[in-house]
Specification:
The structure holds 2 protein chains of 2 kinds. In chain A, strands 1-2-3-4-5-6-7-8 form an 8-stranded parallel beta sheet. Chain A is 39% helix and 14% strand. Chain B has one domain: TIM Barrel. In chain B, helix 1 links the parallel strand 1 and strand 2. Classes of the chains: A alpha/beta, B alpha/beta. Chain B: GO terms for molecular function: carboxy-lyase activity; hydrolase activity. Chain B: This is Amidohydrolase.
Chain lengths: 257, 267
């Protein structure tokens, strides 16, 4: 008997990573407010998690306002903001606890960190991890921004902190496998999740609840993960879980339902 | 809504087969590849076994032929020519075995430039027969930067050469487009981790939709990554179908690819 496969299973997905703002060194589709709305329309998505390109490549904390502005203007479309944090540094940030409290008050659904790009060690953010764990907000990080040892340390020390690894590429399944095996709080999104049959492989190993649909619109071509999941070898139930269900669980504290 | 069923006919001109030492690939076998093709609307895929490109061309080429035999009509084979591993012997094998439909070279992996004498027999064979040659191409590579193929195209103008990855990086794509704009024997293939739909659109804007080819690199990388960039790119239906299958059907004429409806093959 074949897999249950209906087109309805490709509607209502939640895009767990969009980056709003211009990309300085890549030719990718636009990501302003209207382009994000069109993206949601075109692929019948239920919402998205949006962070700011400026937070990654220009002003880590100042860029958060740009993510919130887009989220607020598309709140009726299920768009949520993802803020960026950096270590406390006089003149830049006084308190990570206060930053997370402000984020919760403003309806932010997750935080993203860029230790490599922003020039600090991941252990400089212990207060952030504790605050996020307490508030139920996920921590998002690109594979290129953090080493596997640091990731293991954080996931071990904060076992209730949901961590979403992004931009894995196609060469890291050996390391990913051990990390997923060792840490129930670790998930991986589909942004450049490019290894052959890796989605099907993890699902067959019982880990479909650790996979999160995301396109990376702004830093990747969104068609990659859209077609990857839609034309996967998974049944409709699993596609829907990866497309939306897992995000509803992970981002519930930020208001996703 | 994308739906779960593909709406296009696909020919994948850049694929591999089997494991690769640097990283784990789940189920890199031919049967799994065909199962993926069934989900993506891929009629036929042209493979160069990883064993052939990474370590042993002769043995790996046998693996490719075994895949052809196991999946007739769905998989076709490139003969990998390694300039350090008796290229004349593999060219003779290619000429004698009709299961091979083209040549694959990987100058970056084999650390030898496309302009070197050890590749001359490959270009001469392609010039004489019209056999397509898929080459890795990589921006700033001393072995296969897109601009290096201009010298090959000038010397062997009837040798059809596919620039695999079209230079890989955004700047490499620009360089590949420049080369293809100067030489009609150069074709652009679209797989690569830095490729985007807008870059593919630029290829088509500059050289036309009839010399841009779909490839995926699978199972090195999942086929649906590259396919998604083309399926979702801002192309006309005609441009998209040219890229996804029509151009491959037109290019592979020395030994035509199996299958196909004939709709794509015109002058």
């Amino acid at each position: 008997m074949g897999l249950a496969m209906t087109d309805d299973a490709t509607t209502g997905w939640f895009d767990a990573r969009i980056v709003t703002g211009a990309h300085p060194s890549s030719l990718v589709p636009s990501t302003d407010r209207d382009a994000i709305a069109a993206h949601l329309d075109t692929y019948a998505m239920s919402g998205a998690l949006v962070s700011a390109m400026a937070s990654w490549l220009h002003d880590p904390l100042g860029g958060n306002a740009e993510a919130t502005a887009v989220a607020n203007s598309l709140s009726d479309r299920g768009v949520l903001a993802c803020w960026t944090a950096v270590p406390t540094t006089p003149g830049e940030l006084d308190s990570l606890d206060k930053l997370v409290a402000q984020a919760l008050a403003e309806g932010v659904a997750a935080f993203r960190i860029h230790p490599h790009s922003h020039g600090y060690a991941p252990d400089a953010l212990l207060d952030l991890y504790a605050a996020l764990e307490g508030g139920g907000l996920p921590l998002c990080v690109d594979a290129a921004e953090i080493g596997w040892t640091d990731l293991d340390t954080i996931a071990t020390r904060f076992p209730m902190l949901p961590i979403v690894l992004s931009n894995l590429g196609y060469r890291q399944l050996r390391r990913l496998w051990s990390a997923l095996r060792d840490h129930d709080n670790l998930s991986v999104d589909l942004v450049d999740f490019a290894a052959h049959q890796a989605v099907e492989w993890l699902a067959a190993e019982g880990l479909s609840d650790r996979l999160l649909f995301a396109t990376g619109l702004g830093v990747r071509d969104p068609g990659e993960s859209i077609v990857r999941l839609a034309w996967s070898g998974l049944d409709d139930e699993t596609v829907t879980r990866i497309g939306a269900g897992n995000a509803q669980r992970l981002f519930a504290a930020g208001g996703l339902s | 809504m994308i739906g779960r069923q593909p709406q296009h006919r696909v020919v994948d001109v850049h694929a591999h087969l089997g494991p690769y030492s640097l990283f784990y690939i789940p189920d890199p076998d031919a049967a799994t590849m065909v199962s993926v093709m069934d989900r993506t609307g891929t009629e036929v895929t042209v493979v160069a076994a990883n064993r052939a490109i990474q370590q042993d061309a002769h043995l790996g080429n046998s693996h490719s032929l075994a895949a052809v035999d196991a999946h007739p009509g769905r998989i076709a084979a490139y003969a990998v020519i390694n300039p350090w591993q008796d290229p004349e012997r593999e060219l003779e094998r290619l000429a004698a075995d009709e299961r091979f439909v083209g040549i694959k070279v990987h100058p970056s992996l084999h650390k030898y430039p496309v302009t070197g004498a050890r590749y001359a027999a490959v270009w001469a064979f392609a010039e004489e027969t019209g056999c397509p040659v898929l080459s890795h191409s990589e921006h700033r590579s001393a072995y296969d930067a897109p601009s290096l193929f201009e010298a090959v195209a000038a010397k062997y103008p009837r040798a059809p050469i596919i620039l695999g990855h079209a230079g890989i990086t955004p700047a490499g794509v620009d360089e590949a487009i420049e080369a293809a704009a100067r030489y009609e024997s150069l074709w652009l293939e679209v797989c690569g981790s830095q490729m985007t739909g807008p870059l593919i659109q630029e290829m088509i804007d500059r050289v036309g939709s009839r010399r841009v080819l779909f490839g995926s690199d699978f199972p090195f990388i999942d086929q649906r990554m590259s396919l998604g960039r083309v399926v979702c790119a801002p192309l006309t239906d005609g441009q998209r179908q040219d890229v996804l299958s029509g151009n491959a059907r037109r290019l592979f004429r020395w030994r035509p690819l199996p299958g196909g409806t004939g709709e794509d093959v015109d002058e």
